[in-house]
Amino acid sequence: MASTSAWNSSATSNDEDNAAFLQSRVATAGVVMGDGFLIFLVFRAIPIVFFGQYDRFIDPSFLLHGVTAAVFFSMWVVLRLEGLSVRAIRFVETAGLLGGAFSTILMGAFIPLGARPDFIILSSMTIGFFARSVWVPSSARRTALLGLAIGLPMVATMYALFLGVDVESWLEIGEAPLEDTATPYTIASSVAIWLTVWWTVATGTAASASRVFYGLRKQVHDAKQLGQYKLERKLGEGGMGMVFRATHGMLRRPTAVKLLLPEKAGEHNLARFEREVQLTATLTHPNTVTIFDYGRTPDGVFYYAMELLEGATLQAIVELHLQMPEARVLRILEQSTGALAEAHGRGRIHRDIKPSNIMLCRHGGRHDMVKVLDFGLVKQLNAGSNSGLTQTESLTGTPQYMSPEAISDPDSIDARSDIYSLGCVAYYLLTGRHVFSGNNIVEVCGHQLHTDPAPPRTGTDNPISPAPERLVLQRVAKSPDARPAGGRELLRVLEGIELPSVWKESDASEWWDEYPLALRSQLSSSSVDTNLQTIDIDMERRRAASGSAGTEHALH
Fold it and tell me: Which is higher by pLDDT, 214 or 370?
């Protein structure tokens, strides 16, 4: 029953959105057509007033001209009512369009034949019908049917009207075909034929316009709809995909939807993207981003939906040179390590831990809640050869945060590689600088392999206690054996650290209450350091292309 209620709620919401849009467009079309007929009515009234021929104001053609304008304006008046269904709006549109068309056709019956009522009616209805096809979303079939409903009485009325033509008077203005044999029948038939031809062309053109506009709107709608999720705006873009703010159609829950970039499409990347979802979905730690759903659209776009987070990445926060006290850094490390400990306990390593993959959020009533993101490069330990999608002999990760073994022997890495990356993150939070920098990726990788890091206290004016500094330097040790074996061991070390000060929930709450506006602009305009981007290099293919000796020399 609950699911049925949710479905009905979603369907009702979608119907309301469609009805509101349609109602607005039909009302606008009514005003446009009404304005057109009103303008020409004013033009007809000017000479009447100028020449004092006031009796022409009660001429049936003038009165019916005014009725036509009133009918189209009445569409706008009726559509000001709220809560109309799509069916009711379509009824108003059909009744208004046909009512205006019939009164226009009837108006033509009172126009002298010498003034060519057929031409006047055809011109008026063509302009109005084109306006309707532009403003009102409609299928080509519906437009064609309305054109038929208007064209039949228009041709029939003009045919009947011209059957009463005075042939001699008509011949004087040179309008009759086959002058020697002209009769009311041939004249009426000629008018009916040319009316049919031109209205068919007008209807076909209007139907084509409806098809184009209707199709474009449908494409835009489909482009913003992924399964049950309606995309609202782009939030960011990473190495594997784009992230959008979205809303679930049934639950109306704000959600973040990540989809694979078109240029990244391909069976290998689709398989990696799908693996990211499946592996992340098995993790339940509160500091790991929660996955709600995933799937593929009919045209092959792969996506997954995750919780929408209010906050900023650690990289965005540090780039603003905001002070990061060591007590706060320790709190961030504890939560990040907890998320990694669960992953490591399940035989998985992240391989791309970096400040831009860790968010600091205000979440669930808590402040400074850490969420570890983007398990797109996760590797499953002790897996068979068919289970891993990352090619052997591949260099994968972000250079500033890659462990030495991830560069020199990527297939041998284990949980201690994540510990190294997290140590680099802690170094960055404490000092505002990367452990190692360089002019290019090769230079950074060379430092990771051979250069000892400077103590954090030498790169900042912020006070750093000996215990956190020892912790960081131990995490970024060159040898994996000198680091904690995994997240659980690191958690035990963190729990034993005592600092002169602590970062309380009240401190975090105060910081978030003063959340700087500059940080919000930073999220949308921050520059990208190309050396900080995730890389995935097939080393075997690289060596085949340039020679292994040259590559090894460059790294050393």
Answer: 370
